Amino acid sequence: MNSKLEQQDEYHWPHKHLLGIEGLAPEDIRFLLKTALSFEGVSTRSVKKVPALRGKVVVNLFFEDSTRTRASFNLAASRLSADVLDFSAKASSTSKGETLVDTVRTIEAMGIDAIVCRHNLSGAAVQIAKSVNCSVVNAGDGQHAHPTQALLDAYTIAKRKNLTKDFDFSGLKVAIVGDIAHSRVARSNIRCLQKLGAKVVLVGPPMLVPSIFKDLGCEISHSLDEVLPEVDVVNMLRVQFERLESQAFASKREYAVFYGLTEEKMKLAKDDILVMHPGPMNRGLEIESPIADGPNSAVLEQVANGLAVRMATLFLVTGV
Amino acid sequence: MKELADAQAVGKLVEELATQVKSSVNLDQSSDVPWALVGVRNRGDKLAERLSDAIGPEIFANRVGVLDITLYRDDLSEVAAQPIVQTTEIPFNVDGMNVVLIDDVLMTGRSVRAALQSLMDFGRPKRVWLAVLVDRGGRELPIRADFVALDLSKGADGLIDGDHVQVLISEVDGKDAIEVRPKTAS
């Protein structure tokens, strides 16, 4: 028993950055989620703060609009007692022609311990990590990755399905519905869920769910009605109007009829199906209000859990 | 490695600690300030449960909590990798209470300092007491225990300054014992 304990003690989180899920081993993901369990309690007590990152500086560097992710990282860093610098790239020197690398090096020169970055170009986080010596956390880069969203989704599934003991998702089937092709949330979720042992089925119109995604080891379906009865979790992605240039679907109404999660469609699903949405929701389009606010929905828990997962992320990467 | 106490002796020490805490609880009978036990992970929490059983669970009425002090350590920025964080579980309001903080070994006082800060973040106890199974001596902070079962602070047979005094608790280590390990070995 003693040796087992010592073995557990020997695990050390090895990653200085969190750039995507692909670089994480299943044991890394499970360790991070377990750490998040310990941070969850901080948000429910009278002093919602621990001194773990006291004296460290975290920069929120957002080149793309974000309200909730930015707020979540901001609060997570504050609850760890780090100083937070909010850097809005739109109002900064990048609009005066400064390159990404120069921007991050300038910021780092102020004595920064971690950069949380969001950028509209895939690969931006990796480029930033290569250019600086501090930790980098990817808060979304183009269509590539949004690792903390995938981790908080996995955490939410584990909490609701009572899997927080070992975070083993074997036997679980998860549907991700919507614009898979353009979605970094989908890409990170696919990898994270698979690493934890779950099966993933992608659902949406053919233009938005290309068959090449089979190469990632996912099932593909263009019928939500067929998929719903056999899945334990359904993750409804937001229809991203701002990213959709093509005529990928004929009309909002048609999308809502075929791929929106309606009360009618919920009758096909398992009684205990877990409904998730990364937000912000288009009510009446990909999800109907009674479902979004119903007992199967974990939408608000996802937000609360995001805080614990981001606290765990910042705590672990800054320790390496 | 030398064994200072075997399972039977540890059992006696826990009883001794329980007796000391209980006498303070009894002296306090006239006041209506409730009592609670809070153990410091990873062994103080197990001791807290044993103390609750020994003193009488009715006195504490499920007010037995667990503190994980990892996030409050003063050497966090100096250790090589982040230590494993475990949950803190204090499922009651500590405001206005008599809280007995329980740890296995008291040495530098730094763990207790961290535990006190953590406890204060949960509220404002009326009074905090400190109960330890072993006082090893070697304080680096002005902290002393109210209840001590085994006092080694004045030295003990063959114990030298660098030695590491380790309390083993069966729920964690597979057996109850108190061991002395030369510093180089650990």
How would you summarize the topology of this molecule?
The complex is a heterodimer of chains A (320) and B (186).
Chain A: H1 2-10, H2 26-40, E1 57-62, H3 68-79, E2 83-88, H4 100-108, E3 114-119, H5 124-131, E4 135-141, H6 147-160, E5 173-177, H7 184-195, E6 199-203, E7 219-221, H8 224-227, E8 233-236, H9 252-259, H10 263-266, E9 274-276, H11 289-292, H12 299-317
Helix pairs in contact in A: 2-12, 3-12, 4-5, 6-7, 6-12
Chain B: E1 2-5, H1 7-27, E2 35-40, H2 44-55, H3 57-60, E3 64-67, E4 98-106, H4 110-120, E5 127-135, E6 147-151, E7 164-168, H5 170-173, E8 177-181
Parallel strand pairs in B: 2-3, 2-4, 4-5, 5-6
Antiparallel strand pairs in B: 1-8, 7-8
Helix pairs in contact in B: 1-2
Can you walk through the features of this model?
The complex is a heterodimer of chains A (320) and B (186). By secondary structure, chain A is an alpha/beta fold. Chain A has twelve helices and nine strands. Chain A folds into two domains: 158 residues, Aspartate/ornithine carbamoyltransferase (Rossmann fold), CATH 3.40.50.1370; 154 residues, Aspartate/ornithine carbamoyltransferase (Rossmann fold). Helix content of chain A is 37%, strand content 14%. The N terminus of chain A is likely disordered. Chain B is an alpha/beta fold and 186 residues long. Chain B has one domain: Rossmann fold. In chain B, 28% of the residues lie in helices and 25% in strands. Chain B is built from five helices and eight strands. In chain B, the strands form two sheets. Chain B has a five-stranded parallel sheet. Chain B has a three-stranded antiparallel sheet with strand order 1-8-7. In chain B, α1 packs across α2. The radius of gyration of chain B is 16 Å and the shape is globular. The mean pLDDT of chain B is 91.
Please report the first level of CATH classification, the CATH class of the largest domain in chain A: Alpha Beta
β-strand number of chain A:
9
* Rg from Cα of chain A: 20 Å
The poorly predicted ranges of chain A are 1-7
Sketch the major β-sheet of chain A.
5 strands, parallel
Helix content of chain B: 25-40%
Basic shape of chain A: globular
- Helix and strand element order of chain B: EHEHHEEHEEEHE
Radius of gyration of chain B, in Å, reads 16 Å
Output the CATH homologous superfamily of the largest domain in chain A. Aspartate/ornithine carbamoyltransferase
Give the % helix of chain A: 25-40%
Mean pLDDT of chain A: 91
Main sheet: strand order of chain B: 3-2-4-5-6
* Spatial strand order of the main sheet of chain A: 7-6-5-8-9
- The CATH architecture name of chain B reads 3-Layer(aba) Sandwich
- Stretches of chain B where pLDDT is under 50 for at least 5 consecutive residues are none
Q: How many structural domains does the protein architecture of chain B include?
A: 1
Order of helices and strands of chain A: HHEHEHEHEHEHEEHEHHEHH
